[in-house]
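Assess this today:

___
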Amino acid sequence: MAGGGDGDAWADQEQGNGGGGSRGGEAKRSEIYTYEAGWHIYGMNWSVRRDKKYRLAIASLLEQLSNRVEVVQLDEASGDIAPVLAFDHQYPPTKTMFIPDPHALRPDLLATSADHLRIWRIAGPDDEDAPSANATGNSGSVRCNGVGGAGQQQQPGVELRCELNGNRNSDYCGPLTSFDWNDADPRRIGTSSIDTTCTIWDVEREAVDTQLIAHDKEVYDIAWGGAGVFASVSADGSVRVFDLRDKEHSTIIYESGSGGGGSNSGAGDGGAASPTPLVRLGWNKQDPRYMATIIMDSPKVVVLDIRYPTLPVVELHRHHAPVNAIAWAPHSSCHICTAGDDSQALIWDLSSMGTGSNGGGNGNGNAAAAAAAEGGLDPILAYTAGAEIEQLQWSATQPDWVAIAFANKLQILRV
């Protein structure tokens, strides 16, 4: 089910800043589009291909073995978001992600993480070796009910291209918490696991390139910062950066206990702050000096400068409940969107923190101190959803659009 224009647009948090809340004579219908799935949505991401505008993948969160993935697309003419294909998936996917291939030079691939990393191939009706939309077996592929048929263009099919298990000694492996597809080298996908490892896959060879014991506890997220550099966050409370040219070492950029991120104090260690798990990591693609992380069950977001380990550049404090998701703007080095259990998605301008061209790189400490003295930084735009927002993605090829997921609804919002 789909609809357009149901809900409020972004609320401008600064008078006169020309935010996305008002656009002259444009109808509100063009600001917000909603899709209602038949199940609770967790995994969600935008397609990167420029020839597949307004296409997203969403995945279910069902406490059972059988789960679902849908690829949906907005019809700009009708304003409806409709499924173009759907397939079964073992266990709830912790993340979905399309291949970072904006110019469609490679096969149309979708990756999902759960017990294993799975790579799915989506094929259009013109592909000679296209998987059948009615394929069975390992693909779990079906065509959506009500799409395709007599007089209508046949919808694409999907097939399971490979299922990758990082445990070489067993069919069983630690569940994958997240993964990231390398923009600079799309052959590489990095996965994070509760077994403390990060695994770098060569998806063309369908083989492990590197596997590292990355942390002391579960690894909750991973993000690429270049062709051979990635970072991860963990239940051990640390952000660590790895360079594949030197696999024996990592750099700790931040620790929640020492950097003020942990609120717990250990009674058995002399009252020293104990680390609080870090659950999400976002690396600024426009300015890779900066990354942001989320502390478990915390309403704040920590922004880091990798040149100045340990101390945050700034902490964002305007959420009123735990933050669940972060997304850097794909077209701006100084804007970030955050979303959480307070049902709010907030967009922040961090240019005053030294992340933009009008800020000094070596003045991050003074800028952060000044912001703290003034009561903290305020967001420039806010959107209130109908329930706790669990997922947030900013479209890389259409930077005017942000997607959020809450309960069984997907919404795409014009910024």
The radius of gyration is 21 Å. Residues 364-373 form the longest helix (10 residues).
